[in-house]
Amino acid sequence: MVKDSKDNNLAVFEEGSKYLMATYSRLPVVFTRAKMQYLWDANGDKYLDFIAGYGCLNVGHSNRLVVNAIKKQVENIIQPSNIYYNTRQVRLAEMLCNITGFGSKVFFANSGTEAVEGAVKLARKYSKEKYGQNRFKIISFNRSFHGRTMGALSATAQEEKQRIYQPLLGGFDYANLNDIDSVAEKIDNDTCAVIIEPVQGEGGINVSDNNFMKSLRELCSKKRVLLILDEVQTGFARTGRMFAYENYDIVPDILVLAKSLGGGMPLGAIVTNDEISSVFTPGSHGSTFGGNAASCAAGIAVIEYIIKNRLAYRAFNLGKYFAGRLAKLKKENTIIKDIRGLGLMIGLELLKPVAGEIVERALKDKIVINKISPSTLRFLPTLVISKKNIDTLIKWLSKNLKNFQA
Ligand SMILES: Cc1ncc(COP(=O)(O)O)c(C=O)c1O
Questions:
Q1: Residues 6+ positions from 71 with CB-CB distance below 8 Å
Q2: pLDDT digits (tens, 9 = 90+) for 66-75
Q3: For the chain, how many structural domains are there in total?
Q4: Which residue from 225, 243, 348, 349 puts its CA 20 to 30 A from 191's CA?
C-alpha cells in the first residue's frame, strides 16, 4: 500500500499505474513537497520547476499567503453553496472587476474548460436573445486549446484531439491565427462570438500579432460579434501584464480565467459587463462547487501577492532576459529552430522530434520542463523564479542540446 511521502518514487509510480487511468504519459518521479519555484520528490531530491503545475502556480508552489488564506478559510466554512452569497466569492469578484477594468460581473467555475463552457453558453444566450435564434456560431483558431469537455473540445481546433470524439458540438468554425481575412470570411449573420487565446499555449506558444488583435477587436465590434479572450494560461501576470490583452491595448467582451487564479486550487471564472451578463438569470447556468470559499480565499491571496510583488513587471523583465539567453543559445545550437513567447511563456521549437527525450534527461538532472509537441519544449515557470534559476536552465540546455545537434 502507498503510504504517501514515506514511499519512494518507484513504489508510488508502480501503484499509480495500477490504479489510475493512463490519460497522461507520466514520468517516473513523484513530487510530495513544493515551495515557490522548487519541488521535492518522494526520495527527498530537490528540483527546479519550469512548468509550475501547467501554469497554475504563477505565485509559486504553496505560496505562504495562499496557504494561510486557505487554512483560515477551511477552519470557518469551505462551501456555503451557491444559493447563498459567500463572502470570499463576493470579494474575489470585486477584485476581478477592478483589475480587469472592463468587467462588472463574474461567474465562478472550477476549471478552465468549465469556464469556457460557461462563456460559450453566455455568448449564445446573449446573441440569441438580442439578434435571433440562429445566432449561435462560434469561431475559434487552428491550433487553439480551450479544454477537454465536449463544448471546449469543439472549440479546440486540433484534429488529433477532436477526431476520436466525433461528433463534436455543432456551430464551431475555425480561422487562422494572425490572418484577419480568414476571420472576416468565416463571420456571417449566424456568428455570435470569436474565442481566442492571446498566446496559444498547448498549440505551440503561438503569439498573436499586435495588428491582428487590434483588427480582430475592430472586426468583432463592427459585426456585433462578441470577443471572448481565453486567458486561462496567459492571465495573472504571465505575459508581463496582469492580463495578456493589456499588451494589445484592447478589451474583450468576455474574459475566461482559471489556472493561476486559484494558486493551485481548482477555480475558473468568466468576467463580463452588465449588459452581457444580464441574460444569465436564475437557472440559466450554474456550478455546485464553482467559486467555493476555500478556492476563492486562495484567489484573493493570489491577486494580492501579484500586485504587492509586482509580478507582471517581474515576468516582463525576466521574460526578456530568458528569451535573450535562449537567442544566444540558438546561435551555438543548430537544433534550435525557433523561440516564441511573451513574458514568461516561452516555447523552444527544435528541428528534430527529441523534446520528450530532453524532458526526461532534464528530469534526471532535477530540472522540470515540459513538451507541447514532439519537437517543442515549453517553459512556463512560476513568476517568482530568479535570474540565477534561468541561468541554471540555460547552462543545462547549453550542455545537453549539443547531444541532439541537427
Ligand atoms: C487556454 C486554455 N484554455 C482552457 C484550458 C482548460 O483548462 P482546464 O485544464 O483547467 O480545464 C487550458 C488548459 O491548459 C488552456 O491552456
A1: none
A2: 999 999 999 9
A3: 1
A4: 243
